[in-house]
Amino acid sequence: MGFLQGVLVLVVIVAFDLKNAWGSLRYSQSPSIMKPQSAPASRGPVLSSQGLLNPFQKASQFQSFDSRKFAQEPLGSQEKQLMQGPVKPLDWKFPIVPEVPRELAVNFQLRQPVTPSSVAVQCSENRVHVEVKKDLFSNGQLIQPSGLSMGGCPVVREDSASGVLIIEYELQDCNSVLMMTENELVYTFALTYTPVAFAGTPIIRAEGALVGVQCHYQRLFNVSSNTLKPTWVPYASTEVGEDLLQFSLNLMMDDWSSQRPSNVYYLGDIINIEASVKVYNHVPLRVFVDSCVATRVPDVNSVPRYSFIENHGCFVDAKATASSSRFMPRTQEDKIRFQLEAFMFQGGDSPSIYITCTVKATVASAPSDALHKSCSFSNGWLAADGNHQACGCCDSTCGPGVGSAAPIGGVQWEGNASLGPVMVKERQKTLAGLQ
């Protein structure tokens, strides 16, 4: 009896231990048992009924420590304070390059030439009489008598009062060509004009022209006169720009409101050019065109070459060729505008002209002087800014050439700017005979 009681007690103890072990295993595998409400943070490790640390519970607690606390707090409190302390903001920035505003589209139409009436022909019984206006192209440019001929026969006289050149010869002279039709005898002549360069320059400002002249004689001896449609030779002219401290040259509209969208001109047209300097962070500057040279190719040292602004800002073209080229009155210190009458080089196959200018800038507060000026010729030398005394040396020498001194009271900047090519076409005209 006593033995059976002892066995029963042992079975009960073993069953109780198995129950505790099974409960511990479920506790370690269930995530809900690890929530804070079932195991407050103030408690230590939970002991089993036998006072021993459950191995499943211990492993679970170490896993919780490794994955949460260590991952969330990799640095100590001192490191946190250093990382969260005030940081001095950077005061250096990349320089901002100002954007150049784009030119707006403008309503531009190239002006077409008009038809002049500048050649008159009168045929008599045995002679031909031709009168040619000196303003052959009706553009204000007078042709030179030495460039006009008819079949190799030169001008015989000039009527200065009416501005007319006269050619008169026998019908069989001047390499005339006789043709016979069913009803007529026709004498044909070739009236040609070859532009002659201005004295001391390699440039011309008139088109070459070929005009057919015919005298018709009917079998009843009625005489009539007529001119044929002339043949014109296309030509061109030029421009382009920029440099050091942002010097630039630009073609401008007739009213100077914006850049010109076309680079096509006709001989006799006025080319508006604006020289400017970008100011950006500089003190206010005043710009001058010191010199300008025109060439057929971009090489400024090539031949032929024509210097139309020289001697530190003297616009000599108007004096040398009696053109209307000039500096415009100054409206802005950092811009200077000038007008150049279109021209071309005598002879040659290339219709292009390239313009290279030396441009200077001085502080706007410095006065203009003999080395820093903008002078035009019109019955004397006149300055664009009104200081006409600075132009007194334009007929002589205004000072040193390269590396000239800065103006009184200021420094100067200098660079080159270019334009080219711009096409200058000859006007397609029909010359109507004057009866």
Written description of the protein model:
By secondary structure, this protein is an alpha+beta fold. The chain is built from four helices and 26 strands. The strands form six sheets. Strands 3, 4, 7, 8, 10, 11 and 12 form a seven-stranded antiparallel β-sheet that branches. Strands 24-23-18-17-16-22-25 form a seven-stranded mixed β-sheet. Strand 19 (326-327) and strand 20 form a beta hairpin. The chain is elongated, with a radius of gyration of 48 Å.
Q: Overall mean pLDDT score?
A: 74
Could you state the order of secondary-structure elements as H and E?
HHHEEEEEEEEEEEEEEEEEEHEEEEEEEE
Give the overall silhouette. elongated
Got a strand count?
Answer: 26
Which structural traits does this protein have?
single chain, 435 residues, alpha+beta, 7-stranded antiparallel β-sheet, 7-stranded mixed β-sheet, 4 helices, elongated, extracellular matrix
Short synopsis of the structure:
This protein is α+β, with helices and mostly antiparallel strands.
Secondary-structure blueprint of this entry?
Layout: H1 2-29, H2 55-72, H3 77-83, E1 119-123, E2 127-133, E3 148-150, E4 153-154, E5 157-159, E6 164-170, E7 177-180, E8 184-193, E9 203-204, E10 209-218, E11 223-227, E12 231-232, E13 247-251, E14 264-266, E15 270-277, E16 285-295, E17 305-310, E18 314-315, H4 317-321, E19 326-327, E20 335-341, E21 344-345, E22 354-363, E23 375-377, E24 381-383, E25 412-419, E26 423-425
Parallel strand pairs: 14-26, 18-23
Antiparallel strand pairs: 1-2, 2-6, 3-4, 3-8, 5-6, 7-8, 8-10, 9-21, 10-11, 10-12, 13-15, 15-20, 16-17, 16-22, 17-18, 19-20, 22-25, 23-24
